[in-house]
Design a protein that fits this description.
Blueprint lengths: L1 E2 L4 E2 L25 E8 L1 H4 L3 H11 L3 E9 L4 H6 L1 H9 L4 E4 L9 H21 L3 E5 L16 H19 L2 E3 L1 H11 L15 H16 L14 H16 L2 H4 L9
Parallel strand pairs: 3-4, 3-5, 5-6, 6-7
Antiparallel strand pairs: 1-4, 2-4
Helix pairs in contact: 2-8, 7-8, 7-9, 8-9
Length: about 270
């Protein structure tokens, strides 16, 4: 079932007592320097646990007014989104600041699929996004817990390395910023091997996995650390704090690698 695009107005909790919601700079359809509008384009890795909503709440706790939208269908590829008329309509219907592109989980890890499917679709979507006046942002995803053995990737680490290579190749070719969620995922597992990031299927994220992804998007889009933010999505304090720290270390450890192209999004 297609999850049609959703516009979620964020940061209402930051309004002064007695102030009407009309004071929220994200209200209305006009561009505002005080509102950051982010459209997420992907599939179940994006809509499970409502990643855009978690990012919105996290941003609000950091003092940012955010509005998010989502175009997501279970199993959708970037090629599916590129040929869907709704994508073009959504890109031009709102003054987005950034548009996140998330490929199907396996395609970036296999060279033949990457060349035949991911790169052409990503290049087309990136052009559409830039023509609409927004910044494209690649969502570098995590690998399957057991890898993809049937295609020569016998474990998580080998598949994650291949996924990284696929996304970063597109980033270099198209000069696009990347939200390195998969790298944050592997970094957290290095520090805490027992972290519960995958659901039972070994593919989709738990609440902790989605929260880590939201922290990475926060650091990437705003160029600041999520450490100390009060929003924890119901996680234990230590679990949320570790996700915040890992996201900050991965994204901000080498800012030029990830956020240079997004400098004007939140100016």
């Amino acid at each position: 079932m297609r999850l049609r695009h959703l516009l979620v107005l964020g940061a209402l909790a930051l309004l002064p007592l007695g102030c009407s919601s009309s004071a929220n700079p994200c209200n209305g359809s006009e561009s505002s320097p005080l509102c950051t509008r982010v459209l997420f384009v992907g599939n179940s890795y994006t809509y499970v646990n409502d990643l855009p909503g978690v990012f919105t709440a996290l941003a609000a706790s950091g003092g940012h007014h955010v509005a998010t939208g989502m175009l997501a269908t279970g199993g959708a590829t970037l090629a599916d989104h590129a040929r869907d008329a709704e994508t073009a309509t959504t890109l031009t219907s709102t003054p987005w600041n950034a548009v996140v592109l998330q490929e199907q989980s396996e395609i970036p890890s296999l060279g033949a699929l990457w060349q035949a499917q991911m790169y052409p679709a990503a290049a087309q979507l990136i052009g559409m996004i830039r023509n609409a006046g927004a910044e494209p942002l690649l969502f570098l995803t995590w690998a399957h817990r057991e890898g993809w053995p049937e295609d020569g990737l016998p474990d998580y680490r080998s598949m994650q390395s291949a996924v990284d290579d696929g996304y970063l190749a597109v980033a270099r070719e198209q000069n696009v910023a990347t939200a390195p969620v998969g790298l944050a995922w592997s970094t957290l597992l290095d520090r805490t091997p027992q972290a519960g990031l995958w659901q039972g299927d070994g593919s989709h994220p738990t609440t902790e996995g989605t929260y880590l992804a939201a922290c990475v998007f926060y650091a990437t889009i705003f160029g600041t650390s999520p450490r100390g933010l009060s929003y924890d999505d119901g996680l234990r304090n230590d679990v949320a704090a570790e996700a915040q720290t890992v996201a900050a270390d991965v994204v901000l450890g080498d800012p030029a690698l990830w956020v240079a192209r997004l400098a004007r999004v939140t100016a």
